[in-house]
Write a structure and sequence with these properties.
Elements lengths: L1 H19 L9 E6 L2 E6 L3 H4 L10 E13 L15 E12 L2 E12 L10 E13 L2 E8 L13 E2 L4 E2 L2 E8 L5 E12 L2 E2 L3 E10 H4 L8 E13 L19 E13 L2 E10 L14 E12 L2 E11 L42 E13 L11 E15 L18 E21 L4 E13 H4 L8 E14 L4 E12 L6 E10 L3 E10 L6 E11 L2 E10 L2 E5 L2 E5 L2 E11 L1
Antiparallel strand pairs: 1-2, 3-4, 3-31, 4-5, 5-6, 6-7, 7-10, 8-9, 10-11, 11-12, 11-13, 13-14, 14-15, 15-16, 16-17, 17-18, 18-19, 19-20, 20-21, 21-22, 22-23, 23-24, 24-25, 25-26, 26-27, 27-28, 28-31, 29-30
């Protein structure tokens, strides 16, 4: 094989100069060609002789990805790992997609027979739970099989996959998308929703229409003005269940059909953008609301501004009894038809993410705002390289319910539930203030200063208060990035969390060395200095080669909540060797 390869190379090298050196006859076009790194004149190829006609097969593409994560666990009584029944734990996903003109087909193989710690028992299994085919022609697209979909902000429908949480609530059925006129998009769908390795018995259907007036009537709108309106409907049919009142004397007459509606409008005026959205849902007794007969509502208002060197946004959300699942008796992270955004900053630092907020399905008021400003270079605050400052904050509170008995704030099963005045807020669920300063000191050195103040109602979010219901914390972080050479960069973090509640103070550190383009070495440690005096250490080595990513590591993982978008999963403490591999093709 090698001999054949070198022979072909030698023939090619010998023939190429002769081709280039051919005498150019009159009428031929002179073109530039690259040979052995030099530009030479050559006869240009005649288009009719060399241009191949595109066909369906030439445009077909096969794409995919592999993600696999292993844990070889070790028991550690000090951090409370417990016992492991399997010597190796693993989550593996293999996605394959075939794309060609007018058609796409895809499937996912999932192997989670021995899942990583923290996933529900129903998460175990293996097979092909996700398979789909899409056909499109001009302004129509039809999908059959499994698919994800979101209407508007997701207040009445959002199906998605989040592997770190074990969430995959895809719909299996059919979906039709139409774009008959520029700026008009229509979607209709129906099917059953996935729950791990099964599909809930209820049926889901719905439709959404969104109209961008500035796209339909381009001549009537200035380029810096825009307006979009949208309307959505989602219905659910679910059979009866035996749910009784607390005294077991009456069986609830549960509604089989639940309808939810959403209307929204978005304006864009120069650098300003405003979104207003309102959703409502029929009375839907379920495990989240204690089986009460009360209509659900959600209102969202968001305003953003962006210009060179400055941006800001402010948003507010009020939700009341908007838990919407394809199985009414379900709890946990599965079977949600809709999604309520958390309106809190997504924290990436270890200690800043120690107390993440989970959206409360019963209802809440949520406020969030942010300001960003870049001080220009060669100004007193900008310095030589400029300075970026970010200030943000969130506040989330419960609704001020009008319970018949204030001393017993409980909605009896089968009742209409206690109402709440629209503008009144109840007790604090969560609050934070974030200050971040990014400063480039030299050509090769950049620092980030970060401060976070948090109020975290542990009793509401986690269902218990370890040392008081409200955890108040101050978090200080310093991050540095030093470009040591063209191929070598060193990044480090120093973190400190101060609190008098829960488990007291924490310190954390990280050192990460990147050697471009292949290697990365990471060492981290998180230490509790308030109660347990335990170290949660880890060491990782990452290697990247083209589309491949390998990672091996060893260390401890602290027990806590893993959250994404206001949805959280409890992750128990673990210790051991980790192996991860990712490949995209």
């Amino acid at each position: 094989m090698k001999l054949r390869y070198f022979t072909l190379c030698a023939i090619a090298i010998g023939i190429a100069p002769m081709v280039v050196a051919q005498t150019v006859s009159e009428g031929d076009t002179i073109a530039k060609r690259i040979f052995m790194g030099d530009t030479v004149d050559a006869v240009a190829a005649k288009p009719k002789e060399f241009v191949k006609k595109d066909n369906w097969f030439s445009k077909a593409r096969l794409n995919g990805s592999i993600q696999t994560d292993f844990l070889i666990p070790q028991e550690d009584a000090a951090i409370g790992t417990g016992e492991y029944s399997d010597p190796v734990l693993n989550n593996t996903y293999f996605d394959l997609t075939f794309n060609a003109p007018h058609i796409s087909v895809g499937a996912r193989l999932q192997v989670t027979q021995w899942p990583l710690p923290g996933y529900e028992n129903d998460f175990k299994g293996w097979g092909v739970p996700y398979i789909w085919a899409t056909g499109s022609y001009k302004w129509a697209q039809l999908t059959v099989g499994d698919f994800y979909q979101q209407f508007g902000s997701g207040l009445i429908l959002r199906t998605y996959e989040e592997r770190s949480l074990g969430v995959d609530n895809a719909i299996r059925g059919g979906r039709l998308k139409l774009n008959p006129v520029e700026g008009v998009a229509f979607t209709a769908l129906g099917g059953k929703q996935r729950r791990y390795w099964d599909w809930n018995d209820s049926w889901i259907w719905g439709g959404d229409v969104e109209w961008s007036l500035n796209e339909t009537f381009r001549k009537a709108f200035h380029p810096k003005f825009g307006m979009t309106v949208g309307f959505s409907y989602v219905g659910k049919y679910e059979g009866d269940e035996d749910i009784f009142t607390e005294d077991m004397t009456h069986k609830l007459n549960l509604p089989n059909n639940i309808a939810a509606f959403d209307a929204r409008m978005k304006f864009r005026i120069h650098n300003f953008s405003i979104l207003a959205e309102f959703a409502t849902k029929n009375n839907d007794p379920n495990a989240d609301n204690g089986y009460i007969y009360r209509r659900g509502t959600a209102a969202l208002l968001s305003a953003t501004y962006s210009s060179k060197g400055f941006s800001a946004f402010l948003q507010a959300k009020r939700s009341d009894n908007m838990s919407f699942r394809s199985k009414r008796s379900m709890v946990g992270v599965s079977s949600f038809i809709n999604h309520m955004p958390a309106f809190t900053m997504t924290q990436t630092y270890a200690l800043a993410a120690m107390y993440p907020y989970a959206t409360q399905p019963d209802g809440e008021w949520a406020l969030q705002g942010e300001l960003r400003y870049n001080f220009k270079r060669k100004t007193p605050l900008g310095g030589r390289y400029g300075t970026e400052v970010r200030l943000s904050g969130s506040y989330i509170a419960g609704l001020n319910r009008n319970y018949p008995d204030p001393n017993n704030p409980v909605n009896p099963i089968g009742s209409d539930g206690a109402g709440a005045a629209f503008w009144e807020m109840g007790k604090t669920f969560y609050g934070d203030v974030n200050v971040e300063i990014n400063k480039k000191l030299t050509k090769n050195l950049k620092l980030t200063l970060f401060y976070l103040y948090q109020q975290y109602n542990q009793a509401v979010v986690e269902g218990h208060g370890h040392n008081g219901d409200m955890v108040k914390s101050n978090i200080f972080i310093l991050e540095g990035q030093w470009k040591m050479s063209k191929k070598c960069q060193l990044r480090w973090e120093m973190q400190y969390l101060q609190t008098k509640q829960d488990r007291g103070d924490w310190i954390a550190g990280l050192v990460e060395l990147s050697v471009s383009p292949n290697w990365m070495f990471t060492v981290t440690d998180t230490y509790n200095i308030g109660e347990t005096n335990l170290n949660y250490y880890s060491a990782l080595v990452t290697y990247n080669y083209k589309a491949n990513r390998f990672q091996v590591g060893y260390g401890r993982t602290r027990a806590g909540y893993n959250c994404s978008g206001g949805v959280c999963r409890w992750v128990p403490a673990s210790k051991g060797f980790t192996i991860a591999y990712n490949y995209t093709f």
